[in-house]
Design brief:
CATH architecture of one domain: 2-Layer Sandwich
Strand content: 5-15%
Oligomer: single chain
Number of helices: 23
Radius of gyration: 28 Å
Strand order of the largest sheet: 1-2-5-4-3
Helix content: 40-55%
Length: about 450
């Protein structure tokens, strides 16, 4: 049931007369028939007892948080967290207990956990300890808090997002009382650090069932992106769209490839958020939202900055939002496009645009030909080895310096001018032709 390195830890504790169990996500995954990514162990042995026991058996350990009952055992190059049963004290900040009391009573340890599906313990022999019906909830695909949901969420408000994340990833429904309490206590999420919200949202948004969770819990998500709320029921009055703005957006999210990551999913969620800001109705009753991408980028930028996304992630998401409605057709424009962005980025942009188009009305879906034609031309440029990066030029800085130009900005300026002519198709990427043009710039 367990990999050898986990089995070894369980056996060491068991043979010494202690109880030890695989717990948390690993136990949940095993019951669901999945292979866990990592394994956590809970035990009635105190940290000092565990350190001595593991050390006596030649196991290297790291005392990461002995005060909270956790040590790390390193076996076969793998790290396993081993935590003593514990009871959490009061939570004063809706996130962290003010104190932790270690215990040898498994019932006390189980009672402090978040959801029933995460409160299942499996021993070395494969025997389950399931005091709150977690196995039955997994079977029925239900997310339910351990005990009173109000108490669980007031202890740690991040559990609200964790519930939504599990629902989005696993496709489980949220039990009625648990769901009602999420709405009741959603504002507690404002007490959670921006970094932790970022982490949970990024895990949630890639879930196969994320669109349904966002739809059902829109009031929660609007705490982070307020503009989402006004998108519900927003009629675009356009023959290109047969859904309101929110439903269109969620369809885009659903239409992304299965291997999507959080940047691509967030770009899908944010790409049309600026439409209500620029919406105008013409005399014929048709809606127009010109330059909505620019407004959407502003909204995306505020969200990404507030929730502490890295500069690299911010740029990629903002660029995806900015360009989601852009389809250059002519070769010079495409070569410039390809000179500015990596092929990896352009492939991701194409995936977003395809999902966006397919979430349009049947009339709007006709735009797919623009995307397919553009992508065909990009492949053609690559297959024909056309120049779209300065490194692809048949001359380089050394050739410019050989003409008597000193090192520095002047060399770069001349190369850039040559490159611009090649991108525009006014010069062939032929060494003699490029050298002749470059000399004319001196």
């Amino acid at each position: 049931m367990f990999p050898s390195y986990t089995e070894k830890i369980l056996s060491i504790y068991h043979d010494a007369g202690f109880n030890a169990y695989v717990v948390g996500g690993a136990a949940r995954d095993i019951i669901m028939g999945k292979i866990p990514h990592d394994y956590d162990v809970a035990t009635d042995a105190l940290p000092d007892e565990g350190l001595a026991l593991l050390g006596a058996n030649g196991i290297r350990t790291i005392d990461t948080s002995k005060r909270h009952g956790t040590i790390v055992a390193i076996v076969e190059g793998e790290q396993v967290e081993v935590t003593t049963f514990r009871v959490d004290g009061d939570y004063e900040d809706n996130r962290h207990p003010t104190e932790v009391r270690l215990t040898r009573d498994i019932k006390e340890d189980v009672a402090r956990r978040d959801f029933t599906m995460n409160a299942i313990y499996i021993d070395r022999e494969g025997k389950y300890t399931d005091l709150f019906g977690g196995i039955e909830d997994i079977k029925n695909k239900v997310i339910r808090t351990v005990g009173d949901p109000k108490m669980r969420f007031e202890e740690d408000a991040l559990r609200i997002l964790r519930a939504l994340r599990f629902s989005a990833v696993l496709g489980f429904s949220i039990e009625e009382e648990t769901s009602r309490t999420i709405f009741e206590l959603k504002d507690l999420l404002m007490n959670i650090s921006f970094e932790r919200v970022n982490e949970e949202l990024c895990k949630l948004i890639v879930g196969k069932h994320a669109s349904g969770v966002i739809r059902d819990y829109l009031e929660v998500f609007s705490l982070f992106i307020p503009e989402l709320l006004r998108m519900r029921g927003f009629d675009q009055h356009s023959r290109y769209h047969d859904k309101d703005l929110l439903e269109h957006t969620l369809c885009v999210l659903d239409g992304l490839p299965e291997d999507r990551d959080s940047n691509l999913c967030l770009a899908a969620l944010l790409h049309d958020t600026g439409k209500p800001d620029v919406f105008v109705m013409d005399e014929d009753g048709y809606g127009h939202m010109k330059k909505h991408n620019l407004e959407s980028v502003k909204i995306a930028s505020r969200f990404l900055e507030k929730y502490k996304f890295s500069n690299a992630d911010r740029k990629e998401i903002e660029d995806l939002v900015l360009l989601h409605d852009t389809f250059p057709e002519k070769k010079p424009s495409l070569r410039r496009y390809m000179s500015e962005y990596s092929m990896e980025f352009l492939n991701r942009l194409s995936a977003l645009q395809r999902a966006d188009i397919m979430a349009h009305s049947d009339f709007g879906k006709q735009r797919i030909r623009l995307l397919e034609e553009r992508d065909r031309k990009i492949r053609e440029i690559i297959e024909n080895n056309e120049c779209f990066k300065t490194k692809d030029l048949k001359i380089n800085g050394n050739d410019i310096m050989a003409m008597g130009v000193g090192e520095g900005r002047e060399v770069g300026r001349i190369l850039r001018l040559v490159f611009e002519k090649v991108l525009d198709g006014e010069l062939q990427n032929d060494r003699d032709e490029l050298l002749l043009y470059a000399r004319g710039l001196l």
